[in-house]
Amino acid sequence: MPFRAGEIIAGKYEIVQLIGTGGMGFVVAANHIELGEKVALKFLRTDCLANQELVGRFSREARASVKIKSEYVARVFDVGSLPNGAPFIVMEYLDGKDLYEVVHENGPLPIKTAVEYMMEACEALAVAHAAGIVHRDIKPENLFLTKRATGIDIIKVLDFGISKVALTGSVFESALPLVKTMMPMGSPVYMSPEQIRASNDIDPRTDIWSLGCVLFELLTGHAPFEAPSITLLTATILEQAAPLLRGQCPDAPAELEAIVARCLEKDPNRRYQDVGELAIALYPFAPRRARLSAERCCYVLRSAGLSQVTLDHNSTRPPPNMDTSDIGVTLPGQMVTRTTGPSAVSMKDLQLQGSNRSFVFAIVACVALVLLGALAFLRQRPAPAATVAATAPPAAAAPVNVPAFPVTATPPAAAVAETATPMPVQAVIPGSPASAAGGSLVAGAKPKATPAAEKAKAKAAASASASPPAAPAAKPPVAPSHEVDVGF
Fold it and tell me: Could you tell me if 87 and 101 lie in one domain?
């Protein structure tokens, strides 16, 4: 490192320590003097400064990487140059380890963890591809594992577009000797066949090849293509088929093996055509929260006009034994499918599930309405007739045998019609002298009954005594005393 601890760069960055070196440059930790924020400064190596083309590309790609707005991309805050013209980039400081260190220290990762890391990298690449930037150097060393504020792991993609100069045609056409170009190129272990051939039509599908290589290494602990020399390595990548994932990781599902194999197709047209398709295919093997990464990949690429893939995931996973021939990608002119687990579910099946739920809800609603109606009916039901009879005012005494329960006898209608003399009940007029004295005054009563009336009275009494007790009436009878003529 050509700097000392405590040295001030560009008048505002104080050097702290060296934190990493690479084929093209090195990174140091520094403090922003005015803000008190810790940042990372990246510089080109001294031997790379002699190539003005590399210097120009370093600065241009640094400015382009500022356009990549994603939480899964290491943010670039500033760019600058030293007094000797050497450029540098100011990036966010990350605390953690890259995936190369993680795998070689802890061994292969669990399937869900590895797939989730790849889906986060897919989202970062989707934003970059939408901005017209192809990374071309995806490898475990450029995938940095750190933590969110909530403590959840998160992947940060480093060196966007900076190291792509290693395998562009202009680099090989430069005046630099080949031995020097191999240094910034780094290891071609994760490079696609078209990238090794220095093809001029390199597109985002080369990053998909690299993602397949990285996922293979995260699950097995080693890269899919290995050789003792660069010559043999490039020949292996160009000529030999990729090894099968389950041969090195028996626990991997066959569907995941097929996804990795498709990423490592020699022909770019046989790979996934964009990272949105790859994210959709990987989602069934990731935690449910990874669904957001797949949705955002599709949305970003569709908004940029680079893909027409759509995603419509349900939050419930289907059974694991379902057919997995469809990866859940919706393309123009094809049937809409939905993927929520290790397989694809057609929209027809999901509509049937929705109709079944609606039918169940309708039945529950009907039962609830019936119960509420029955409860309201019981509350508004009139009291029984026996209760009404029991609460009615008592009638005058009559020569009738009273049963054990309170029953009011009703005399025959003929007897009542023939009776000229009312029952011996006196009607007291409120406020009369008789009422005040405690006596009684019969208003309009005749002084003496006639012989015919006496006979009718005796006949009615005989009929009443001979007739059986009447059944309880639904309504209380009107007391005869209420029919007395008071003479008004």
Answer: no
